[in-house]
Amino acid sequence: MTDLPPLEELLEGMRVVSIPMRTRFRGVTVREAVLLQGPVGWGEFSPFLEYAAPEAARWLAAGVEAAWRGWPAPVRAEVPVNATVPAVPAARVPEVLARYDGTTTAKVKVAEPGQSLADDLDRVAAVRDVLGPRGRIRVDANGAWSLDDAVRALTALAAHDLEYAEQPCATVPELRDLRLALARGGVDVPVAADESIRKADDPIRVAREGAADVVVVKVAPLAGVRRALEVVAECGLPAVVSSALDTSIGMRAGVALAAALPDLDHACGLGTVALLEGDVTTDPLVPVRGVLAGRDVVGDEALLDRWAAADDRVAWWRERVAAAHAVLAG
């Protein structure tokens, strides 16, 4: 990475926060993040705890881009945002959706370990009841279904008029076969690829092999806004910009990507700040009337102190920054 600042510069100014989640989401109950302040603004480095240095390095590249380089010029001033519904009981769906002002699209977590298809159907039905017939619903299985399970689940869930199913199966061949199986069965549920884009050495493969109708892109796992724009262009498919449980500082990078896309036909998964108990800015980047504006986000000293991680966690993150930096420098 040619514009990588020295490690000492990153370590000197980094702040580590630890913010509880309102609701357990993908096994996460507390979100930790490193916040970086550079010459052009703030950036975030918050790869999930299990990610090794090579994968985490992409997240550091995105944080450096935000704080030291900035982003491409936008083509729109605001972007539509979807609500995110974790794998909560159906009775809690209205409470979750009430946190999102004016959103008419919801992404619903399905295939949660320990839950059944009946739980998923109840949850999606509850979302449809709240959004009404004109609302858009997408489901996200995070690759948890086998091909047969995906066909069975999506055939049942299709009754709720799904916008698409995000990463229903884990592998690209399974996604391709699923699209064929759904088409043969007359099940009109488009397939979106997420993990097969952001965790892949070859993110263009899903498009090349006809394994997706939509690509879901996240700034941090793809090493920044510029690289994400390249991936979308190379795939040649409609794109949805999503987040990774970021603070408002990390979310701002997602808004920058969505604002810079030539075409944006779907609401973006950039409303997950609402899943956190707190934030690092006095003006959180949350949807207002269903959209997010592309405005500056600045870390607040009092809130950075309020959510400051314990000393042992700061030391752990310093080592992680150093390891990711070494990958980028190499």
Blueprint (SSEs and pairs):
Layout (H helix, E strand, L loop, with lengths): L6 H7 L1 E11 L2 E11 L2 E5 L7 H17 L8 E3 L2 E3 L7 H5 L7 E5 L7 H15 L4 E5 L6 H11 L4 E5 L5 H13 L6 E3 L1 H4 L6 H4 L5 E5 L6 H11 L3 E4 L5 H13 L30 E3 L7 H6 L4 H19 L1
CATH architecture term of the largest domain: Alpha-Beta Barrel
Distance between the termini: 8 Å
* Structure classification: alpha/beta
Spell the H/E element sequence.
HEEEHEEHEHEHEHEHHEHEHEHH
Strand neighbour order, sheet with most strands? 5-6-7-8-9-10-11
Count, helices: 12
The proportion of strand residues reads 15-25%
CATH H level of the largest domain: which superfamily? Answer: Enolase-like C-terminal domain
Number of strands: 12
Looking at CATH, which topology of the largest domain would you report? TIM Barrel
Main sheet properties: 7 strands, parallel
Shape: globular
Word description of this protein:
By secondary structure, this protein is an alpha/beta fold. It is 38% helix and 19% strand. The chain is globular. α2 packs across α12, α5 packs across α6 and α9 crosses α10. The strands form 3 sheets. A 7-stranded parallel β-sheet has the order 5-6-7-8-9-10-11. The protein has a 3-stranded antiparallel β-sheet with strand order 1-2-3, with helices on both faces. A two-stranded antiparallel ribbon has the order 4-12. It starts with 6 loop residues before the first helix and ends with a helix. It has 2 domains: 94 residues, Enolase-like, N-terminal domain (Enolase-like, domain 1, 2-Layer Sandwich); 216 residues, TIM Barrel (Alpha-Beta Barrel).
